[in-house]
Amino acid sequence: MLDQLKAWLKKKLEIKTPTGDEEQYNNDYFRELIQSQTHLIVQLEAKLAAYEAQQSNSILADIQQLFVIQTNKGIRKYGDSVRADNLTPVEWCQHALEEHADSMVYLMALKKSLEESEASGLETS
User: Fold this and answer.
1) Which residue of 22, 53, 86, 118 pairs with 18 in a disulfide if CB–CB is 3.0 to 4.6 A?
2) What would the pLDDT profile of 69-85 be if each residue is shown by its tens digit?
3) Euclidean distance between CA atoms 45 and 36, whole angstroms
4) 45-48 long-range contacts, Cβ below 8 Å, gap at least 24?
5) How far apart are CA 75 and CA 73, in angstroms?
């Protein structure tokens, strides 16, 4: 991971591959740069781990795709994606309550359907 990050930094900073004494200078430079950006590295590692987990887990991939679809739907409907300043705190609470109410209706309908399936002897798993 560190070698990949160094290569990326070299490319971004347009640093040529060092020779001789320059090698130690660049290694020190990269070490200081990396240490000063530890929080960014941690975030990158977390994103990489999440991406790798998502790649091997179809449920996570489906959820990620759902977020993309919902974001696109929201942009088409409201002309913008969700931002903290879109609504007041009270409006955010109201919006969340309405979304959860809808969710409860969907879950109750699903529960009723599953109960009917179980009652008629069909397996649900």
Assistant:
1) 22
2) 999 998 898 888 888 88
3) 16
4) 45/1, 48/1
5) 5
Are residues 114 and 124 in contact, defined by beta-carbon separation less than 8 angstroms?
Answer: yes
Would you call 18 helix, strand, or coil by DSSP? coil
- What 8-state DSSP symbol labels residue 85? T
For residue 79 the two structure tokens come to 């002309």
Q: Taking a C-beta distance cutoff of 8 angstroms, is the pair 16, 26 a contact?
A: no
User: Which amino acid does the sequence have at 52?
Assistant: E
Contacts of 86 (CB under 8 A, 6+ apart): 78, 80
Which position has the token pair 């887990």?
57
Task: Let me know: does 71 contact 81? Beta carbons within 8 Å.
Answer: yes
